[in-house]
Amino acid sequence: MSARISTPSRRLAAIGAVLALVVALVAAGIAIGKSAGGGSGKPKASGDDAALTYDPQQPTYDQLEKTTSRRTDGDPLAIGRTDAPVVLVEYADYQCSYCGRFTRETQPELIRKYVDEGTLRVEFRNFPIFGKDSERAARASWAAGRQGRFWQFHDEVFAKLRKGDALAEDKLAELAEKAGVKDLDRFRTDMNGSDAAAAVKKDQEEGYSLGVQSTPTFIVGGRPLAGAQPLKEFEAAIARAKAVRAAEAGDSAAQKSGK
């Protein structure tokens, strides 16, 4: 059973972060790349189950889905078909306990029920918010992806909560070896290279431009879902997004037929 934060001040802070994300999404439209940093405080890990309500026909969210879901062929940080009707984008930090909980408890079910059948695509974004150790782990995950082992490495790191020295370079290399990364010298070179730093920075800047303030934060079909949500919240969000895509496809078909 998922643990919940019960301290009122922490619950209000988490809800405030969700509301700030919604406001930022609506304000941003499709203008990704414009900084949305402000006076909301430093990003943090979020464990609250603060559900969102929104209009499934809101065009702003449809625009954001098209902008935030990259749908790139061969993207090592993504799983699922590029033409899946729904894309879940996750912004996460490898030192975030709630991100680990999602990886261990919720993501396998989403893959089994939705990714494998072609309904859902999952795209991971490195969003390190806890300093140098988080940044190193993010670069390491990108480096593992260069050898086709991102998800295996990702799951190894999140198999338990790891902080500080547990994410030192030698420890990350050990995890990479366990994840099936064959060329560890290349892994270390890639992890410490400028391309890895640029890739992580790109993901960070995208998240900040959207107003992401906590980890994990998810965007499902262009709509935000923040914190350690139960499986049913993801299922509801996927169903809504799938219904919107189906309606759009129906409208498009009707227009083409002249009806």
TrEMBL record:
Occurrences of domain Thioredoxin (ranges): 58-243
Transmembrane feature ranges: none
Region entry Disordered, spans: 37-78
Composition bias type Basic and acidic residues, residue spans: 63-74
A Pfam family recorded for this sequence: Thioredoxin_4
PROSITE patterns noted in UniProt: THIOREDOXIN_2
One Gene Ontology term of the molecular function aspect: oxidoreductase activity
InterPro entries from the UniProt entry: Thioredoxin-like_fold (IPR012336), Thioredoxin-like_sf (IPR036249), Thioredoxin_domain (IPR013766)
Keywords: Disulfide bond, Oxidoreductase, Redox-active center, Signal
Family recorded in the similarity comment: Belongs to the thioredoxin family. DsbA subfamily.
Name this protein carries in UniProt: Thioredoxin domain-containing protein
Annotated organism of origin: Streptomyces cinnamoneus (Streptoverticillium cinnamoneum)
